[in-house]
Amino acid sequence: MPQILHTRTTPRLAVLLLILSVVAAVSSQVVPASPALRAQHTSDHGDDHLVGRRLNSSPTDEDKTVPFNSWGNTVDTLQYGLAFIVVLVAAHPLGLFFPKLFKLPLITGYLVIGIIAGPFVSNLLTEGLVTMLSSYVSALALSFISFQAGQEIYLPELRPQLKAIMILLGTLYVTAMIILSSAILLAEDAFFYSDMGFYCQLGIALMFGSISVLGSPATVMAIKIELNSVGPFTSLMLGATMTAEFVVLVSFSISRIVCSIYCAKLDVSMLNLAYTMGIVLANIVVGVVLAGVIILIFKIPGGQPQLDHDHDVENERPSMMSHYDQRTNQKMASVGQDMAPHPHNAYDEGTGSKKNSSCWTYNMALSLKGLIWLTMGYAFYISTTTLAEWTAATYGLSWEIKFEALLVLMIASCIAGHY
Q1: For residues 146 and 413, is the Cβ–Cβ distance under 8 A?
Q2: How does the entry describe its membrane topology (predicted)?
């Protein structure tokens, strides 16, 4: 397990991480607010269940959003998948021009290539492709990024910088909340909430301020891997980025409650507030549980790395040869090593036949563990969205169960990495 989680990232893995980061950034969508909900806040207060059904009742064609949903969209799914793979493969060599020619980070090149290939420029990746594949590709990319970011957090190295992390995060939070929230409140006439009440506008401003504090683990990890940076500043940025996830989750949850009360006119009680904070803390509990699952995954039996075995054999060989020379006379010393009946030859033959007869190699075990690990993260991302939609539609927005998958998987990977 430690060998897996603390192995340094190879260049190939770095390239994959960077490409997946760009895919997650480019393929993300902005879901427009429900016009019915905006119109409802002034005339009809409704109840929590009605609002939940309204938010989840927008007409959607599943053939446009779910791959292989029917025979009719199978051809479209295959075409979209092929186009995406071609652009994904071509993005790497094209992105390399940016560090060489413009001295910019590699991720900048990937972002530019994604914009050019997207539906607003060359339309190589069409709007239909983005609509169908964006959520699935984002879940896969973010699960990979979450696990990688969590592995980089090692508390014994981070403990001396906890004070600096808290100061940095506190300064950033206070500054961003004051500046951005004030700007959004003052510029109310330019936005959709100009006709709403002051407390509703305040809740919206606090939501935007909370989002502005959040850093991107994908960007931080991409630049760290590209520059191969280590040291106090790198640990400071990684620690602040991971801690900001939890701080922003709490801040955004509080802002969301304010908006639910004064914008959506929902009946929110102290029980709803306690429930929301309980969901925030549940992210940590779920992260701990998933950490145990990760540890079990990497306990799947598998052979030892071949390099380590060869190294041990080479270390054994001189000592065994010296022992053999001491117990033989000078005449036997002239006999070839391969012809001599010393015990190590029998050991080599035994291990050779054992290795040849075994089909379950170390690399096969490692590949299986990695596949299960990544699949677990992907399934968790998809399930959190499904669970949130179902609970909001069934019990109302005040009782929605929404886990922050990025934070949960980072916590799980961090705990498992320490183990």
Answers
A1: yes
A2: Multi-pass membrane protein
> How many structural domains is the chain composed of?
1
Confirm if 22 and 114 have CB atoms less than 8 A apart.
Answer: yes
User: Nearest CA to 222 among 418, 18, 71, 3?
Assistant: 18
User: How many residues comprise the chain?
Assistant: 419
Question: Would you call 413 exposed, middle or buried from its count of C-beta atoms within 10 A (0-12, 13-18, 19+)?
Answer: buried
CA proximity to 134, closest of 84, 74, 95: 84
Residue 144 within any structural domain of the chain: yes
Q: Which residues, 6 or more positions from 374, have their beta carbon under 8 angstroms from its beta carbon?
A: 140, 143, 144, 147
Note every long-range contact of 196-200, with CB atoms under 8 Å and residues 24 or more positions apart, other chains counting: 196/41, 196/262, 196/263, 197/262, 199/258, 199/261, 199/262, 200/41, 200/259, 200/262, 200/263
pLDDT for the residue 129: 92
In a domain, 339, yes or no: no
The model's pTM is 0.70
Q: Is residue 347 part of a domain?
A: no
CA pair distance 139, 246, nearest whole angstrom: 19
12 three-class SS:
helix
Q: Which residues constitute the domain of residue 292?
A: 2-303+361-418
- pLDDT tens digits, 276-318: 899 999 999 999 999 999 999 999 887 565 554 444 444 444 4
